[in-house]
Automatic annotation (TrEMBL):
Belongs to the metallophosphoesterase superfamily. Purple acid phosphatase family. Its cofactor is Fe cation; Zn(2+). The lineage of its organism: Eukaryota, Viridiplantae, Streptophyta, Embryophyta, Tracheophyta. Residues 382-442 form the Purple acid phosphatase C-terminal domain. Residues 158-356 form the Calcineurin-like phosphoesterase domain. InterPro entries: Calcineurin-like_PHP, Metallo-depent_PP-like, MPP_PAP, PAPs-like, PAPs_C, PAPs_N, Purple_acid_Pase-like_N. It holds the Pfam family Metallophos. This is Purple acid phosphatase. It catalyses: a phosphate monoester + H2O = an alcohol + phosphate. The chain crosses the membrane at residues 7-26. It comes from Thlaspi arvense (Field penny-cress).
């Protein structure tokens, strides 16, 4: 023994440290107080019903067309149907306009919803502040929103990213941090799992109502772009509820028809400099399915001269190094990843895993069952995959990670928070992730994104590898 084994030991140590270096990614050292995540009680301030007879509540906006010149206004009236009309006008304009919508109700087990109104306002001017009023003839409530700038390659636009929000005390902190972030988000790209009403007995749908009231302070003033998660399924055969997505589809609208989709769960929009594709992790996506056929026809429609930034949203992530939901996104990845690389998607945002993670630009498309080439490789045509499933819902944080950190994982941390994707021009976008424990302007993770078409150079934060 002696000398030889010492040398061996040293070699092993060198190899080990090299491997650590090769891993490259960062598992954050941030130490968080691990409090239990609990839902805000029904008598919380954020759930208060607005005063007045039949006052509109749960007011929310989403984009109403492909180009950003239409907005869908939705709200609920509890006592009676009331008016379906939205009164709206341009800032400082005396010319008031009206748009007429429709309302519906639904039943879920022994729950009956209020009157859910949806009204699309069309032919809006770009880059303009509009005021609007709902509840005409009874209790009127007034809000405002901004339309996006005209679609084009060099307009700036800032998106917020929130996923798996729920309605716990931590959810409220996440929303507050988003609102008070000095980099102001203009539209939220929501990554699925809204209310978590399905975690209550009989999917207690009053928790859909409380959620709608909780987020109104943001959703009434800026559009939230909806992705569906597993908690939107509300599939409960034991109590006779077998129509998937029933509460979600009654309460939330998406402009799916405008982009040629046949279901509300997958669709696309353009907003300023971005083309955004929303995919459905819980609708069929295999070959020949409606979603597959739609996506195949959608990619050729993306015009990077017009919208340089190609963003994809989905609920279940493809690259995830936590123990939770590990490989759940794999079957969709196998189907669609070659298209993402071929079409040079800039970034993919997902939720589902209740933590934060950002990947390197990697792809794993060489594998064909017989060749054994099954490890993700660095690929400058591939998107960065970001998981922001850390909105703060009652299920708590995902803390267990696969070790060692895989090479594809650039940064990961199990903390609640939100992210910001701030497009500056056709080449640059500033990205930041904000953890709830920090001050509003503090960033827990940042990256300058270089556009894959206009500036396709390495933008990895741990580059050199
Ligand atoms: C509306 O009026 C306010 C106050 O006079 C002014 O500051 C603002 O610039 C005006 N906005 C537009 C779009 O004209
Ligand atoms: C629905 O049924 C549950 C028990 O099955 C009961 O606790 C609840 O009060 C009922 N709700 C309504 C609105 O009837
Ligand atoms: C939620 O956050 C807001 C601040 O944004 C605060 O005013 C409110 O009291 C909070 N509510 C609860 C129940 O934590
Ligand atoms: C893409 O958009 C640009 C700018 O709007 C336009 O000039 C061009 O014709 C479009 N290309 C296609 C293939 O439609
Ligand atoms: C695009 O934005 C980046 C970051 O703000 C800036 O450095 C760059 O000069 C801008 N490019 C152009 C052409 O303005
Ligand atoms: Fe989920």
């Amino acid at each position: 023994m002696g000398r030889g084994s010492d040398l061996c030991l040293i070699l092993v140590m060198i190899l080990n440290s090299l491997m650590m270096f090769c891993n490259g990614g960062i598992t954050s050292e941030f130490v968080r107080k691990l409090d239990k995540t609990i839902d805000m009680p029904l008598n919380s301030d954020v759930f208060r019903v607005p005063p007045g007879y039949n006052a509109p509540q749960q007011v929310h906006l989403t984009q109403g067309d492909v180009e950003g010149k239409a907005v869908i206004v939705s709200w609920v009236t509890q006592e009676s149907k009331g008016s379906n009309t939205v009164l709206y006008w341009k800032e400082n304009s005396t010319k008031k306009l009206k748009a007429h919508g429709k309302s519906n109700t639904y039943k879920f087990y022994n729950y009956t919803s209020g009157h859910i109104h949806h009204c699309t306002i069309r032919n809006l001017e770009y880059h303009t502040k509009y005021y609007y009023v709902v509840g005409l003839g009874q209790t009127e409530r007034k809000f405002w929103f901004y339309t996006p700038p005209q679609i084009g390659p060099d307009v700036a636009y800032t998106f917020g990213l929130i996923g798996d929000l729920g309605q716990s005390f931590d959810s409220n902190i996440t929303l507050t941090h988003y609102e008070r972030n000095p980099i102001k988000g203009q539209t939220v790209l929501f990554l699925g799992d809204l209310s978590y009403a399905d975690t209550y007995p009989n999917h207690d749908n009053t928790r859909w109502d409380t959620w709608g009231r909780f987020v109104e302070r943001s959703t009434a003033y800026q559009p939230w772009i909806w992705t569906t998660g597993n908690h939107e399924l509300d599939f409960a055969p034991k109590i006779g509820e077998t129509k998937p997505f029933k509460p979600f589809t009654h309460r939330y609208r998406t402009p799916y028809r405008a982009s040629g989709s046949t279901e509300p769960f997958w669709y696309s929009i353009k907003r300023g400099p971005a083309h955004i594709i929303v995919l459905a992790s819980y609708s069929a996506y295999g070959k020949y399915t409606p979603q597959y056929t739609w996506l195949e026809e959608e990619f050729p429609k993306v015009n990077r001269t017009e919208t340089p930034w190609l963003i994809v949203l989905m609920h279940s992530p493809w690259y995830n190094s936590y123990d939770y939901h590990y490989m759940e996104g794999e079957t969709m990845r196998v189907m669609y990843e070659p298209w993402f690389v071929k079409n040079k998607v800039d970034v993919v945002f997902a939720g589902h895993v209740h933590a934060y993670e950002r990947s390197e630009r990697v792809s794993n498309i060489a594998y064909n069952v017989v060749n054994g080439v099954c490890s993700p490789v660095k690929d400058q045509s591939a998107p960065v995959y970001i998981t922001v499933g850390d909105g703060g819902n009652l299920e708590g944080l995902a803390t267990k990670m696969t070790e060692p950190q895989p090479e594809y994982s650039a940064f990961r941390e199990a903390s609640f928070g939100h992210a910001i994707f701030s497009i500056r021009n056709r080449t640059h976008a500033y990205y930041g992730w904000h953890r709830n424990q920090d001050g509003y302007s503090v960033k827990g993770d940042t990256m300058w994104f270089y556009n894959r078409i206009w500036h396709p150079t390495v933008d990895s934060t741990s580059s050199g590898s």
